[in-house]
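Two quick folds needed for the group meeting slides. Do the first one here.
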Amino acid sequence: MTRRHWVIISAVLVLGCCASTMRNRTTEQPDDATTVSATDRFVLAADGGRNHNVRRQSVVHTEEAIFSLGDPRVRYNAQDQTLRVLHARTTMRDGTVVEIAANSVTETTPDEIAVAPDYADLRETVITQVGMETGCTNDLSYELIEQPSNKPYWGEIPVHLSYPVASRIVTVEVPPGVALSWKCLGCEVTPATRDNETIFAWADLPAIDPDHATSGLLLGVPRLVFSTAASWSDLADELFADFKNMAQPTELVRARASELTKHSATQTHRLAALWRFVVNDLATITWPLEDFGFAPSSAESVLTRSYGHALDKAVLLSSLLHCAGIESHPVLVSRDRLFAREVPALSQLRDVWLIAQIDDRQVWLSPTELLPGDRRDHLSGLWTLDLKVGVPLLVEPPDRATEDNQSRLVVTLEIGDQDNMVVDARLTLTGTYSPFYDLEAEHDHSELLSGLLHNLWPTGTWDTGCKDCFARIEQLSPQSATFSYRAQGKLPGHRGVVEVSLPWTPRSQILNLDIHRLSRQADTVLRSHGTESSHVTVVLPKDWTLATELPNVFVSNTVGSLVAQGSITAGTIELDSTLTIEKRILDPDDYLSLRDLGIELHRASNRSLLAVTRTATVKP
């Protein structure tokens, strides 16, 4: 009786992009639907009331479009908005017109706020269409009516939609004497004016690029931004006043700050303890801040209920830091690179950070993520509105040399007799790769080690696990860190089939360009110089042979390069990869080049697949 082991060693030298980057249609494929007409009308009444009227007329071509268009969802805040469905009808192929029934409009609770009763005013209404079939024409019209307000009217709307649009019209109407500023980001348009209306029109627009539709955030999608606000400073002053008022500490907040920092010896340690508490112990409600009117809750209410959106959590963190003698103030952050500096509209700013002051240095903190390294680097290339300054500023990455930012991973994997396996690894991080670039930490580092080195022990479909694992910190400072790892155990496997994945360098996630700043799924792009390298050695038993070709990849463009190569000598496989970002990434062309590099890296990683076989005789 013979037993054949298949050990598939996937050398994950690079990280590929999300599947969405691979979904681009070819020119031969028809569109699932065509939007014949798409209109949006924004009206600011003389009394401050607001009205947004929406109409979409689409021709359905495929079953997929029926699924997509059959249950449109409208989100709004019922505290100051009312939804009114004007009509929803379908003209079938034979000309029959079918109107929706009264029970076709259903109000639901969005998943994001299912655990947040204080946000119960946020609604999602499903408008279920009837009579949908391929070849039909769907016509939906509704309006959102908002209560009067004395605040400026601002907003933004994507120009392109999910399907090609034959006619796209956006109208903004304001009362006489009210100034309107606007900008079309990533697009061109010459508006027409009529009385108090500004009318923007486009024809024959292509569908949204799937690359831009990540997580429904429409990052990078061309959009129209408008506002009646006089200046950014006016918006910043009002919001900062509300923030400071809500961040006033109460006895409950002071008591919690004291409890959290009672074992902290320095201000840096106190900051770290409070930051970890707000990020880890309070649930984050991911919902656009504009739907809350950028109105924060009080620090005590956020602490009591243990959840909040980014602005709420920033209020609590600022209040706790104040109790510890650390002053801070908020900074709003744009969602992507497209930003209209000349149009003061808060809808362009989708995230909130804090700038804390410790001695003579500033520490940038996200209230929703424990981001490693120089946290300001995570905002490089984005726009910020410092509420103390009141002027939008582009965050530029520090001009560091490539050799100052490095990640170096060295791994040796030795497969011995009877499927015994030993893994030794050493990870060195310098510059912005260091997990504590500008902030020390006093807590147990086991979680950090697990996060950085989780992939070093090979795992398989039937994993027997690591029997003897040991990881330690050899050196740790704000500028550099060195970790070592050793593990022993049995090669994972069952019935002769096993898959083994070798590690990638710890921050190669930066090249997944479909994971953007606000998707909350991974790190943002490293928009600065840096090098990630790995050297993996696999020592095979004498009776094992290599079954597929080793990688030999070189890809490059104007912003960076990847070299991934392999060799085998006397049963020892050597795998090397070096990923280099060679310049500061700021302008849009370089950003697209970096995205293209990421796509090439995905293709290269798919080719970097190794297979090793062994045949042995086993007694029954």
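Then this one, please, same format:
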Amino acid sequence: LEIRHRSVRPISAKHAQASRFLQQSHPALFLDERFQTSLVMLAELFKGLPAMLVAALDEIEGMDGTEVRKEWAGPLRQAVVEKLVKEVSAVMARRVQLAQISTLSLLLWMSTMATDLLDPLLA
């Protein structure tokens, strides 16, 4: 069973098998609480991904599907990982930039407030 947002629904045998495989092959990921949000995000990320990839391959001009080979899996997996790292890094960089802007704004506001408070005393 999958428990999500206070609802319980059965999961398919394929999903259960994949979950058992991951839990057996990488038990540390499932025991370490630091990775729980990552696993939830990845589950959401891969929901529907196979159908999207098939549709994307189908849109390539001149490709009828017979060209696809199992050997492509490794390089394509690596490309997905690299893109994931690039996008997560970009999000983190934007967060740092926003935090710096917020800090600068706060410092400017405090400086203005201090000036407003001290000016009458120094006059």
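Slide caption for protein two: The beta strands are 2-4, 7-9.
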